[in-house]
C-alpha cells in the first residue's frame, strides 16, 4: 500500500506501544499490533484470567484460567509474532507508578475497564506529551478517541471532567463489540506510528452495535477543563 511502503513498515518495526489492559479491548488491539509488525509492546494488567471473561478476552483460553493476564498475553503474542518484543507489567496503574511505567513509550492505548485508571493514564499522557488512544465499551456500544497533546487536541477530561455515577448493577459487554473497538484502536495506533493523521484527535467515534452504525462527534476544548484548562 502506498500509504505504508517500506518506510512505514520500518516505522512499525521501530515503534514502541504500551497497552493498558489485556481484557476485551486489549486482546484485539494487541493481536493486531503484533501481527502488523510493531517492534515492541508493553502489556500492563494486574488481573488474572477468569472464565466469565473469555467471551471477549480472546488473547486467553480455558487453559490460562487463574494465570496473570500479562503472562497469558505474552505467550499468545510470542506465538503470533516471535519478532515482536513483548514486555509485561503485572500491576494496576495509579498515581504513584503511572509516570514510571509509561516512560519511554511512543504511544499509549488505554484498554482499561475502570475510570480511576482511565483518568490517571489520560492525565499522565497529557502532562508528558504522549499520544493516547482511548476506547471504552458497554453492552452493545463503544467509543473511541485520540488525544495528541502536541497538536492541542481536546484532552480526555474536556470530554469527561468527572467519572460518571456507578450503575445500579453490573453491565454486560457483547464480546464482539469489544473486538470491534479494540481493532479500531489498533488501526489508529498503526496510522499514528507511520505518520498518518487521525481525525479522532478532535472527534469521538461512537459505535452502536444494535443499529450497526457509527457516528463521528466533534470534540472541543473546555475552557474550565481540570486537566488542560487555564488553571489545571
From TrEMBL:
GO terms for molecular function: nucleotidyltransferase activity; sulfotransferase activity; thiosulfate-cyanide sulfurtransferase activity; ubiquitin-like modifier activating enzyme activity. One of its GO terms (cellular component) is cytosol. The chain crosses the membrane at residues 17-38. Pfam families: ThiF. InterPro entries: ThiF/MoeB/HesA, ThiF_NAD_FAD-bd, Ubiquitin-activating_enz. Keywords: Membrane, Transmembrane, Transmembrane helix. Residues 2-226 form the THIF-type NAD/FAD binding fold domain. It comes from the Bacteria. Belongs to the HesA/MoeB/ThiF family. This is HesA/MoeB/ThiF family protein. It comes from Desulfobacca acetoxidans.
